[in-house]
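Hey, I'm writing a tutorial for new members on how sequence and structure tokens pair up, and I'd like a real worked example in the thread rather than a made-up one. If someone can provide the structure for the chain below, I'll link this post from the tutorial.
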Amino acid sequence: MSMIPEKARKDLKKEAVRWEKEILRETPDQIQGLLNDAEPFQVPRPPRQPVSLRMDPFDLSMIKRFARKKGVPHTQLMAIWLRERIEKEKRLDASE
């Protein structure tokens, strides 16, 4: 089930069709020029909050080892894993 209201979905679909027709009128050079001039879309996010937790030293050393292999800081790897788990739990919760 979509979280977007029906009216908004219809409006978005109409707009997509209109944009598709407009794009078909433009040459590849015009499109490339527009893409070169476009600014990247950025979603504003609230600042991250620091969290502290106590961990088993062995677990922490394993996380650091995994992070080194992946070439990311261990704190970033833990944040990625937490995000993945949260998304998984949300899906499981929604299916109940």
